Amino acid sequence: MAPSFAPSGVITLTTDFGHKGPFVATMKGVMLTRFAEARIIDLTHEIDVHFPAEAGFWLARSYAFFPSGTTHVAVVDPGVGTERDVVLLLHDGHVFLAPDNGLLAPLAGLPGARAHRLDPGRAQPYVLPAVSATFHGRDVFAPLAAEIAAGRVRVEDLGPHVASVVPSWVDEPEVSELRVSGSVIAVDNFGNLITNITAAHLGRFRRPVVRAGGHDLEVRRTYGDVRPGEALALVNSFGALEIARSERSAAESLGLSRGAPVTVREHDG
Amino acid sequence: MAPSFAPSGVITLTTDFGHKGPFVATMKGVMLTRFAEARIIDLTHEIDVHFPAEAGFWLARSYAFFPSGTTHVAVVDPGVGTERDVVLLLHDGHVFLAPDNGLLAPLAGLPGARAHRLDPGRAQPYVLPAVSATFHGRDVFAPLAAEIAAGRVRVEDLGPHVASVVPSWVDEPEVSELRVSGSVIAVDNFGNLITNITAAHLGRFRRPVVRAGGHDLEVRRTYGDVRPGEALALVNSFGALEIARSERSAAESLGLSRGAPVTVREHDG
Amino acid sequence: MAPSFAPSGVITLTTDFGHKGPFVATMKGVMLTRFAEARIIDLTHEIDVHFPAEAGFWLARSYAFFPSGTTHVAVVDPGVGTERDVVLLLHDGHVFLAPDNGLLAPLAGLPGARAHRLDPGRAQPYVLPAVSATFHGRDVFAPLAAEIAAGRVRVEDLGPHVASVVPSWVDEPEVSELRVSGSVIAVDNFGNLITNITAAHLGRFRRPVVRAGGHDLEVRRTYGDVRPGEALALVNSFGALEIARSERSAAESLGLSRGAPVTVREHDG
Questions:
Q1: CA-based, 20 to 30 A from B262: which of A152, B46, B69, C105?
Q2: Residue ranges of the alpha helices (H) in A35-151?
């Protein structure tokens, strides 16, 4: 049986467009023109430019905080206007639309997820009359999301089911007997370094030690568990291992950013 | 016959306020206090500070993606509190409000557009009881927009029709027999340089060559039509000539920003 | 008699989260899951990181521009997950929720304001099933705000009345016979320096002179009252003394930022 979707009227937007210019806004305008009752929430527009992996990382960890029946649109699309496909994904009562460039890989692998490849012919009645070569967010994704969120078209009517999607640009952490090796996927406004290592990965260690930027860090519960200025590791509120510094920026003080390697091993003692 | 306006309840906001402080938010609070059902969309708040021309440039190219009956408020207002006028403009079923400082010039010149100058006496029943000297966005524009979007007052009741508005700070491209000369109006989050030269301007050339920052560029269809890192020109999704660099920042690599001259001529070959 | 609160369905959000990642968005998702009709307005997410005083400063000066019955959530929370309390405040028909770290001090001192300390036991039916150690904005504040804004729970049912809250991190201006001494609390997108000195403080001087960064400035009405590039002082649209520079950044040219001392004295002449 196909996963079911009962639209809530909520749409989230995730892009690397930033806040300059009318790019996000015209997507919303197109949505409201089609579906005046849409309630549109910005997930973030500050995905690292041209880095789909961060968008998928956050979507997979965030979608469940939105009402069942939410339509999530993610546009990090360096290949716009070329031959890349579009994926529509049903998972856990939510719908996800994105370019097929690895963005949705973290969701496509979840149990029960079902992916469809957009068939341009079947999408044609819904997209803007003149689709530009450089802004499918506004011309293709926005109108499709509005129609799906309004309950006027179903994912399964927009293209064939596909068994797999393009894999993520970032590998899952490597797990060996003695260590877990992952990397920094995102840096937040506080300079916290957020990795793709999860609480489940840590579960295998009695007393995990986290190594990042030449420092060994113990895993604490919250920022205030060390003195201001001290570095620490913790499992953050999205279940991801995070390198932080109490009341300061870990990114700055450790000189680390996206892609930095992070490993976890057992404490020697 | 005057152009007609059937309010959709949608309001867009365009400012140079950025995202610090409660400036945009208090405009929205005033709107919701007057008109609880308003659906307010941020067009952008990152217009280059004190540069009305960018706001008008984007509004003229974006408004049609919003529902007919939308009220567009634009506040880039270095002259706030001085003797400058306020313009209300009806065009194509949309309403536009802005200081009369050239911001609305790109719209006022469109066929069928009709401008009115705000008469402070007629506006007085609608604006906030105490209008500050420095924040007309909140005290004048927000309440007026709410009343217009709610259908409780009409543009034509707020002041006399005027034949012209203050011209734009940026000239239209200069067109000669052999070349079109324009300039960069905006830079987007990707570092793409967006000019005031349009697809129509390019139409006069058999094989246009775009010159910017000492480079000659051919016009391509999309970013992926050249190799990553290579510069290109294209007509973007708003019909504007854009200087870009595949998967990189053209602004950074060419060292260009707002105001940089860009010319188009016929290819020699 | 306790202050009354008739919820309008409007919720404002004030944080230091910036716009990276899904932090603000998941708060909104939780709110819409509980209360689909919520109208959520971002007050600002660019409060100076870990500086609650700026959030309280703006909230105290902004709330009245929102509809009566608005629920204001402010999360600047360096102590998240430690023993700090949460305050719920009723004032003037509005509700405010924040960590008890001084953020709400500017409101708690207003006549008629009534503070309650959140009782975790009474909050428990409303918060998320698994409260994280590091993101109470999403797990505690968002669901509580949604329930309050939906009219399903009252502030006075969530914990005992308390006579006082933690004081602000920034002192009120010091007033002596000859001078008023305050400081810069916030810098806006234009580089204007906004102080905690108020119009009322200025009222005691016949011809006030404002000293900041070694410059003596006269108080003008609006930016355009001096020539472009000249520095000035004015009472801004929130009743706060502001140091500005016409069409330029005062922060940059005077080299001043948050915390800089500003004094007002009588003109010598």
A1: B46
A2: 52-62, 105-108, 120-123, 136, 142-149
- Beta carbons within 10 angstroms of residue B54's beta carbon: 25
Name chain C contacts of B77, Cβ cutoff 8 Å.
Answer: none
Could you tell me the two tokens for B161?
């029709």
Q: Write phi, then psi, for A148 (nearest 5 degrees).
A: -65, -45
- pLDDT of A1 > 80? The answer is no
Q: Which of B9, B58, B224 sits opposite A22 (nearest CB)?
A: B58
Q: Closest residue of B to C61, CA-based?
A: B22
Q: Which residues of A are less than 8 Å from B222 in CB distance?
A: 80-82, 133-134
Strands (E) in chain C, as ranges, are 10-15, 39-44, 71-75, 86-91, 94-99, 114-117, 161-162, 174-175, 179-187, 193-198, 208-212, 215-220, 231-235, 240-245, 261-266
Task: Report the Cα A258 to chain-centroid distance in Å.
Answer: 15
Task: Choose, out of B222, B235, B237, the residue to mutate when testing the contact with A (most A CBs < 10 Å).
Answer: B237
pLDDT digits (tens, 9 = 90+) for A120-130: 999 999 999 99
Instruction: Sort out which chain C residues have CB atoms less than 8 A from A45's CB and list them.
Output: 19
Report the C-alpha gap between C61 and C242 in whole angstroms.
14
pLDDT per 10-residue tile (average), chain C, 269 residues: 83 98 98 98 98 98 98 96 95 98 97 97 97 97 98 97 96 95 98 97 96 96 94 97 96 96 93
- CA gap C22, B76 in Å, rounded: 30
- Interface touch A134/B8, C-beta < 8 Å: no
Is A21 within 8 Å of B224 when comparing Cβ atoms? no
User: How far is B144 from B88, CA to CA, in rounded Å?
Assistant: 10
ipTM over 0.85: yes
**Which of C37, C107, C237, C258 is the best residue to mutate to test the B interface, defined by the most B CB atoms within 10 Å of its own CB?**
C237
pLDDT band for position B3 (cuts 50, 70, 90): low
CB-nearest partner of A25 from B39, B43, B194: B43
The per-residue pLDDT for A268 is 86
φ, ψ dihedrals at A253, nearest 5°: -75, -35
* Cβ-based neighbour number of residue C91 at 10 Å: 22
How far away is chain C from the Cα of A74, in angstroms, using its nearest Cα?
13
Tell me whether residues C234 and B18 touch, CB distance under 8 A.
no
